[in-house]
Design goal:
By secondary structure, this protein is α+β, with helices and mostly antiparallel strands. 62% of the residues lie in helices and 10% in strands. The chain contains 25 helices and 17 strands. Strands 1, 5, 6, 7, 8, 11, 14, 15, 16 and 17 form a 10-stranded mixed sheet that branches. The chain has a 3-stranded antiparallel sheet with strand order 2-3-4, covered by helices on one side. The longest helix is centred in the middle third of the chain and has 208 residues. The protein is elongated. 35% of the residues are buried. Bound molecules: adenosine-5'-triphosphate. The site of adenosine-5'-triphosphate has 17 residues, from helix 17 and strand 13.
């Protein structure tokens, strides 16, 4: 950083008092420099001239070498003189001493001419070497141990002195040289200087060196005085670092001035030298003259010390002022710097804010850039898709264009055709306009007529409406009466139906026996040697079997279904019509058992399958209006083992790879009597909601039922199948809950071993079948004979049917026989079995009332007979029983509930009947027995 531009000092610092004095004198006597030189002024120059003349005379006398020697001698002599009389030379001034050298110089024109020539050459040399001389002199002075200020002052003084002496040396010719400077420079070249240059220069140097020594001594005392002053100042100046800088600054200034002097032109140099001489002379005058002389000269004398003191004080004041100004300046600078610093800080903060904003915006921009990159990728994809779409569209467009052109062509054709049509239409229109006008007129007339007609019609309609309203009113009134009558009729009907149902059930109960029907399967193919016939007559339910034409065996059954004359219709619906009233009584809470018995291939399975389907459909359709739950179990008795036909074969631990038939590894179910002596089988029971589900279960169960092909039947059933449908019904009308059970049993066919030709497993199966059927026959015989012991436990079949056969169930046996003489013996056995069964007296059938609707139980017998429940009756008798597990458990639960909660008052119907609610009582039957 460059030093601050200090304000220039009013005076150069560190100058000795001599310089200041001379300077003041120079200022004071500046007017004198412009006028000619006085004799006193040229005293120094006189000395130089004398020296010069001596040198020139010596040169002329003894040549150049001698000149040099003499010059040295002269210089030495002069030195010695100066040593001996320094103050006389420098400090004494006597104007009267000697003549004026300029006047004497001027007087001699010859000498002037030659001198001028010499001066010209010397002048050139001197000027060329002047700056180097000054430098040498400065170096010389600097090499001494004097203080810097003194040296500087001495240097200036010395330079002035040198200048002065040079002027003195050149003085006489200065005015003449004047404007001829250039001319002189041009005319005087190196040739003019010639080989004397070096010698001359060295002489001059020596001369000036000598002069320097002289002046050094001459100014010694003054220098000492000045040193004291300078010492004071230096002490002050040393206190401040700033002052030293100023000194350096001033010194540099001086150096610059010196350089300026060095670079001056001839005229300037001469002028300054001349001025310097005057100043020097003035200073010397001041130094040597007394106050009176100075006053005489018009100069106000100032004592040297006072001057120095005042000047020093003034200088110090100036310095102080300068320092203060500098301080103020610096303070201002500092304030400015601080302000600038604050501005910079604010700027930096602003920049930081800007930077953070820029960083944020940069991040935002980067994020946007990333997003834009992603968007770019997406857009590229879209662009690709769009291009593809565009291609497709172009293709489409092309096709559309094509079709468009075609359409346009077609359109043109159509337009032409349309125009033709329009033209024709116009013609037609024109042609038909007249009739149209006529038609319009007619239409107008007819509209008027229609209006009148409409009014008439409205009036008529209103009239009719009134009549209709009256009629409707009357009709409604009549309808209300009819509705009321219908309600009454309905009540009557229900009462009647109830009564009829009661009578029907009573009739069935009164029959008391097992209902036995027979079905004769027609022979298919082959020659028929008929031995069966149906006895004609009122009842027509007697089968006559003529074995050997010796007289027919007659067997009377409740119904005989056959294609033979005098028999009931053998259609499935014809049979079902007879069976359904009994079967559907399960919905009324009765236990019902329908089973088919007969020889193999006689159509048992065929019949039971049809009956099952019809009964189930009817069962579910007739239970509408009742809250009911229906569940199904399906089991078979194969080789005297009970198996579940509703089980999943996959649950058999892989023992069967398919819905296998007759697999001996199928687990059998336990059949046992509980504590109440009731039969229990742990079979699967499936809740169902429609007849189709039952059919589906039967189909699936039949698939795994044990059936095999025999000589007598291609699909012979090798097991007895028991389908048990349990119905739990809430009869809201009666306010009772019933639980009935319908057992549909398809027995395996009896067969003679001689005819079936079975062996192995089939033989074993046949034996088990025949054994079980024989056990059933024994039970029937025992029941028919009303024996005390009924051998139910002889087989699983009789065990399972014991509830049906021994209790209060309704039982129907379908005896199936085949026509044909070859079947006669088996038919006879079958019919005999049926006849035996028909003699069996069962106990009175009882409803299984398990509770009341809403938790109550009891109620009298009732019957809401649907169409399907009509007809048929069955005599019931014997002891009750045959309820399912769930039925029994439900009854047990009801008993417990009754024990805990006393029964509420009976329902309205029960109350009106006056009978206490009856619950199926096995104990009662047992007691009866
Ligand atoms: N009433 C009938 N009308 C026409 N075909 C019948 C009739 N009854 C049975 N069939 C046919 O006779 C064949 C044997 O009938 P089904 O299998 O029902 O006899 P089954 O008594 O069950 O014999 P098994 O005791 O060996 O099982 C079957 O093909 C069946 O279609």
């Amino acid at each position: 950083m460059p030093p601050p531009p200090f304000p220039p000092s009013p005076k150069p610092l560190g100058l000795p008092s001599s310089y200041l004095s001379s300077s003041l004198n120079h200022q004071h006597n500046s007017n004198r420099t412009t006028r000619g030189l006085s004799a006193e002024d040229l005293e120094g120059g006189d000395v130089m001239l004398r020296l010069y003349e001596s040198i020139r005379s010596e040169e002329r006398r003894s040549g150049r070498e001698a000149t040099k020697t003499s010059t040295r001698k002269l210089i030495n002599n002069e030195k010695n003189k100066n040593k001996n009389k320094p103050k006389q030379v420098n400090h004494t001034h006597n104007p009267s001493k000697g003549a004026n050298p300029i006047s004497s110089f001027t007087s001699s024109s010859k000498n002037q001419t030659s001198l001028l020539t010499d001066l010209k050459s010397s002048n050139i040399r001197l000027r060329a070497q002047l700056s180097s001389l000054l430098n040498l002199s400065a170096l010389f002075l600097k090499s001494s141990d004097k203080p810097l200020e003194v040296v500087k002052g001495d240097a200036i003084a010395f330079s002035s002195l040198l200048d002065d002496n040079v002027i003195k040396l050149l003085g006489p010719s200065a005015s003449n040289i004047g404007g001829d400077n250039n001319a002189l420079r041009g005319s005087a070249g190196t040739d003019l200087i010639g080989g004397d240059d070096n010698a001359c220069v060295s002489e001059v140097i020596n001369f000036f060196k000598g002069m320097g020594l002289v002046f050094e001594k001459e100014f010694g005392e003054r220098i000492e005085e000045c040193e004291e002053e300078g010492q004071k100042w230096r002490e002050q100046f040393e206190k401040s670092e700033r002052e030293r800088v100023m000194l350096i600054y001033d010194f540099k200034k001086l150096e610059e001035e010196l350089d300026q002097v060095r670079n001056r032109t001839n005229e300037e140099i001469l002028e300054s030298v001349y001025d310097g001489k005057l100043a020097l002379v003035g200073g010397e005058d001041y130094a040597v003259k007394d106050d009176a002389a100075l006053i005489a000269m018009g100069i106000q004398p100032i004592p040297t010390n006072a001057l120095a003191t005042n000047v020093g004080r003034t200088h110090v004041h100036h310095e102080m002022d300068a320092l203060r100004q500098q301080k103020i300046f610096l303070q201002k600078e500092v304030e400015e710097m601080r302000a600038a610093l604050r501005r910079k800080e604010a700027e930096v903060n602003a920049r930081e804010c800007d930077m953070s904003n820029i960083v944020d915006s940069l991040e935002e921009a980067q994020r946007k850039l990333l997003q834009s990159e992603k968007d770019k990728v997406v857009l590229k994809r879209k662009l690709i898709l769009a291009n593809e779409e565009k291609q497709k569209l172009k293709k489409k467009e092309y096709s559309y264009e094509k079709s468009g052109i075609e359409a346009m062509e077609l359109g043109d054709i159509a337009v032409r055709k349309a125009e033709d049509i329009l033209e024709k239409a116009y013609k037609v229109k024109v042609a038909k306009r007249r009739p149209l006008v006529r038609a319009k007129r007619l239409a107008e007339e007819s509209r008027r007529g229609v209006g009148e007609l409409g009014r008439h019609v409205k009036l008529e309609i209103n009239r009719c409406l009134h009549d209709v309203c009256d009629l409707v009113r009357e009709g409604l009134f009549a309808l209300g009466e009819e509705v009321q009558g219908a309600a009454e009729m309905r009540v009557k009907y229900r009462l009647e139906a109830q009564e009829r149902r009661k009578i029907f059930n009573k009739m069935l109960t009164m029959q008391g026996r097992m209902r036995v029907m027979a079905r004769i399967r027609p022979k298919q193919g082959g020659e028929l040697n008929q031995c069966i016939s149906i006895a004609p007559g009122g009842k027509g339910d007697t089968i006559m079997l003529d074995l050997d034409h010796n007289g027919a065996h007659k067997f009377r059954f409740d119904k005989v279904f056959s294609h033979l004359p005098n028999a009931h219709s053998d259609t499935e619906h014809g049979i079902a019509e007879q069976v359904l009233p009994l079967a559907l009584s399960a919905m009324d809470g009765y236990n019902v058992c329908v089973f088919a018995y007969g020889q193999t291939g006689s159509g048992k399975t065929h019949t039971m399958k049809a009956l099952t389907s019809i009964i189930c459909r009817k069962l579910f359709s007739s239970r509408e209006g009742f809250k009911s739950k229906v569940s199904v179990s399906y089991t078979e008795i194969y080789n005297n083992e009970v198996r579940d036909l509703l089980r999943n074969p996959k649950d058999d631990h892989g023992s069967r790879s398919e819905w296998g038939r007759g697999d001996n590894n199928i687990p059998s179910l336990d059949v046992r009597n509980n504590l109440d002596g009731e039969v229990e089988v742990n079979s699967i029971r499936v809740q169902i909601t429609c007849a189709e589900e039952v059919e589906d279960l039967v189909r699936r169960g039949t698939e795994i039922r044990s059936t095999f092909s025999t000589d007598l039947n291609k699909h012979s059933s090798r097991s007895h199948a028991l389908l048990t449908i349990t119905c739990e019904v809430e009869n809201e009308w009666a306010g009772l809950k019933y639980c009935g059970k319908l057992n549909l049993v398809d027995l395996a066919g009896s067969e003679r071993l001689s005819r079936s030709n079975t062996e192995g497993d089939r033989l074993k199966e046949t034996q088990f079948i025949n054994t079980s059927l024989a056990a059933l026959g024994n039970v029937m015989s025992a029941l028919a004979k009303e024996q005390a012991y009924i051998p139910y436990r002889d087989s699983k079949l009789t065990m399972l049917l014991s509830d049906c056969l021994s209790g209060n169930s309704k039982v129907l046996m379908m005896t199936c026989v085949k026509e044909g003489a070859e079947e006669a013996s088996e038919t006879l056995c079958t019919l005999q079995f049926g006849a035996r069964a028909k003699r069996v007296k069962l106990g009175e059938a009882k409803k299984n009332v398990v509770g009341k609707v809403g938790g109550e139980e009891g109620g009298e017998d009732w019957g809401v007979g649907g169409g399907s429940r009509e007809g048929g009756g069955m005599r019931s008798g014997g002891r009750g029983g045959g309820s399912s597990n769930s039925t029994r458990s439900a009854i047990r639960a009801d008993k417990k509930k009754k024990a805990n909660n006393p029964p509420p008052p009976p329902t309205v119907l029960a109350a009106t009947s006056g009978k206490p609610p009856s619950i199926r009582g096995k104990s009662k039957s047992k007691e009866k027995k």
